[in-house]
Amino acid sequence: MATRFYELEPTPGRPEKFPTEVRVLYDDDAIYVGAIMHDVSQDSILRELTARDNIGNSDWFGVYFDTYNDHLNGYQFIVTPGGVQVDARQSPANGEDGDWNAVWDSRTTLRGNDWVAELRIPFSAIRFSKAPEQVWGLNFGRQRRSTRQKFFWNEVKPQVSGFVNQWGELTGLKDLKPPLRLSLTPYISSYVNHYPYNEQGKRNASTSFNGGADVKWGINESFTLDATLVPDFGQVLSDNQVLNLSPFEVQFSENRQFFTEGTELFNKGGLFYSRRVGATPVGFGQVNGQLRPGAREADGSRRQGEFVAENPGVTPLLNATKISGRTSKGLGVGIFNALSNNVYAVLQDSTTGARREVLTQPFSNYSIAVLDQSLKNNSYVSLINTNVTRAGQTYDANVTGGLFRFANKANKYALDGQVVYSHRRGKDFNSERDIADQNGYKYYLNFGKISGQFTWSVDHGIESSTYNPNDLGLLFSNNSISQSLSASYNIYKPFWKVNRLRTYGSISYSLLQTPTRYQEAGLYLGGNTTFTKSFLTTGIDLQALPLARDYFDPRRAPLGRYYVRKPANARINGFLSSDYRKKFAYDVRYAARFFAADGDRTNRNTLYLSLSPRYRASDHLSFVYAASYELIRNQVGYAGGLDGRQPADAALLADFGGRGGDVLLGRRNVATVTNTATGIYTFTNRMSFNIRVRHYVSNVHYRDFSRLRPDGVESPVEYQRNRDNTFNAFNLDAVYSWWFAPGSQVSVVWKNAAARSFEANAATPLYFDNLSNTINTAHNNNVSVKVLYYLDYLALRPRRG
Question: What is the pTM of this model?
């Protein structure tokens, strides 16, 4: 029986005042954990109801297993007094991975001044060896939300690097037999979609019916196969669309469960960006260039050309499969594979109505292979390979990387490193040109002190000018040499009027790799703390940067000739977060950046403010509202490409030396307003409804223009074309979810979406005009119903008499 717990927050090491009692049992099918959490009264036991995997304003009890006792990887199972289940995986790559889910049972009840939790974790939910006698890493945790205290049975010290390595041990496990882990989760879904095309011969409404399944099979005691057959991701949360003025793509969050759950091995090294799988087709933006133009007939009449009737923006998957696990010797193995079919755009003749298909995405295979060997002292070595193979002549891509972490026996110092090689071969899509960035490399080293109140690290890295992992990974910019020195000093125990204090700082310096030229340098300082009585958390960061050079914004290759000057500047940003135990709470974020004068260009700055109040009406109902405003004044940046068909552009284009010559820059003001409102009602710990509404508007107004020559030389130009633009986006996601049985769910989802851009004279900086434009824009409405049913072989097999 475990009875003595030690506090982690806010006062590390202090023994628990209201004791916790835990007992562990096991049989041939599962491990059982029973716990009694003593308290002062029932009013002190907070128990907000929330959706699965969300603790909210509640107490909790958790059990943690490191089944291979490697001190790196583990499972955690948490339950709240309201019966809400939370589970996660612990790993060096992802830390706490809350997207991992298992099927397990739990019950809770209030008893006098105590609350009681019982957990049944089937052996099919976890992985362990066949050894006749085993030792697992073990810990128990508890939160008393009323006093904002967290406790652990085996003391967790915040000044020590790592979490799993600070667990205790569970002994006496004999003759455990890993069960056959086989489950099938078939699904059926139905969609009704409405978009007001209001075109003759084109239906505004459409319906679809889908079916498929997820399969989970334990190949042996260590490895599991997860497969999704004919997947359906139509109910995932909508992306937060934004206006992108940068030279880099927008990174979106991954909301598809198959690509977030159990991916700790595949995420090692940061080489896997799962949104590449099923992404926008590679030829999506080339369709307009393949339209047959209009022509003059022999009789003098004008024949209209083609238009784009359909151009799918998402590549549907045929299937995706993961095999992952870890042996008793600490070797982790992961294999991922996904297949997508051909995608076609449809072009239609304006006169005859004849249609033809244009390939925008060939049949493609995406694969990842990972080997990860756990070593002593919280160390590891890993090998990762990612590959994208496409049918036809278009190019394929392969990336191979090795990474390591070696810590000393005292877990005080560590050396981390990474070496990656990227290789691309074949032709550009729809082209006879050889693909660029055929061979590239990256390496990174970091050494430092990782434990104690004072920690520090020094690092150095190079990404070659041709390093390109972006077919299955995400890299915003390559071609860099970077180094930094970082330090942190933390006080973990309460003092004065605060619970703890964290301070940090760094000095960084970077160069362009080819040619070797200065990019930027910076000094960064910051800290945060929580006040003892009010539990108000606050933090502030300061940054100072001397004159820098942006080689990427001009969008000219090869890098090095053109760059945009960034004057010396200083930034301050911070946050306030009040006590979430109260019915009304709030978050505030603020930032300001001020630039030095650059010749006659003055008053360049950025201001940002966000307010997010939240109100918990009851333990069932809560609301969150977030509003943000950002104003960028006198920013100088790429103003867009010049179009020879535009009268105002033609003369400049010739004078600039064509499309690969000098660059048009613009001085602009950018104002962005975002409003997001969320309401959540939780009926029970298995049934909830939430609605989220987001409106985003960003307005760009150009004040003047200049010509960018090589080596950052700028000169004013007379340019009359109006390049102002406004972008509006609106999304509504309403979700009803009912887990009617373990692992089985019914979900009903309504999505409403609209997006529209306004250019030149149609652009407007007035917020309510943009709100009206958004409301009056054609909206796409989608209503869907999806049913998942979890079938476990162990529950279905005939029982012996």
Answer: 0.91
The widest CA-to-CA distance across the chain, in whole angstroms, is: 96
Write out the two tokens for 294. Answer: 């209009």
Contact 84, 58 (CB under 8 A): yes
Distance CA 688, CA 49 (A): 9
Contact status, residue 793 vs residue 182, Cβ threshold 8 Å: yes
d(CA 116, CA 106): 11
Q: Which of 329, 336, 427, 348 is nearest to 386 (CA)?
A: 336
> How many Cα atoms are found within 13 Å in the side-chain-facing hemisphere of 391?
11
DSSP strands (E only) in 301-395: 302-303, 306-310, 317-326, 331-340, 343-349, 355-361, 364-375, 379-390
Q: Measured between alpha carbons, how far apart are the two ends of the chain, in Å?
A: 34
d(CA 45, CA 81): 8
> Cα separation of 229 and 186, whole Å?
9
How high is the mean pLDDT of the chain?
Answer: 93
Domains identified in the chain and CATH numbers = 6-179 (2.60.40.1190), 249-429+440-476 (no CATH)
Contact 124, 181 (CB under 8 A): yes
- Closest Cα to residue 99, out of 238, 278, 280, 237? 237
Decide if 207 contacts 190 (C-beta within 8 A): yes
| Structure-block tokens of residue 271 | 């080489």
Confidence of residue 68 (pLDDT cuts 50, 70, 90): very high
Q: How large is the average pLDDT for residues 758-771?
A: 90
**What confidence tens digit (pLDDT) does each residue in 550-572 have?**
999 999 989 999 999 999 999 99
SS (H, E, C) 139-195: EEEEEECCCCEEEECCCCCCCCCCCHHHCEEEEEEECCCCCCCEEEEEEEEEEEEEC
For residue 116, give both structure tokens.
């009681």
Q: Which residue has the tokens 């071969």?
A: 425
Q: Is 584 exposed, middle or buried (0-12, 13-18, 19+ CB in 10 A)?
A: exposed
DSSP 775: H
Residue 356 in tokens: 């033809």
Q: Note the pLDDT tens digit of each residue in 570-627.
A: 999 999 999 999 999 999 999 999 999 988 889 999 999 999 999 999 999 999 999 9
Which residues are CB-neighbours of 585 under 8 A, at least 6 positions away?
A: 577, 578, 579, 613, 614, 616
Q: Which whole-number Å values give the CA distances from 234 to 191, 209, 231, 320, in the listed order?
A: 9, 12, 9, 16
Adjacent-strand bridge partners of 152: 6, 141
Residue 469: asked if its preceding bond is cis (omega within 30°), the reply is: no
pLDDT, tens digit (0-9, with 9 covering 90-100), for 74-96: 999 999 999 999 999 998 877 88
Residue type, 295: A
Number of H helices, E strands in the chain: 4, 45
pLDDT band at 797 (very low <50, low <70, confident <90, very high): low
Identify the bridge partners of residue 374 per DSSP, sorted by sequence position: 380
Q: How far apart are CA 709 and CA 561, in angstroms?
A: 8
State the Cα–Cα distance between residues 115 and 60, nearest whole angstrom.
Answer: 10
> Three-state SS for 661?
coil
Is the confidence at residue 493, as pLDDT, over 90?
A: yes
List all residues 6 or more positions away from 332 whose beta carbon is below 8 Å from its beta carbon.
73, 265, 324, 325, 326, 370, 371, 372, 373, 374
In this structure, the strands spanning 105-111 and 114-122 are antiparallel
CB 612 within 8 A of CB 625: yes
What tokens does 387 get?
């590959």
Q: Report helix, strand and coil shares of the chain as percent, to nearest 5.
A: 5, 55, 40
Helix/strand/coil for 750: strand
Return the C-alpha torsion angle 186, 192, 195, 199, nearest 10: 110
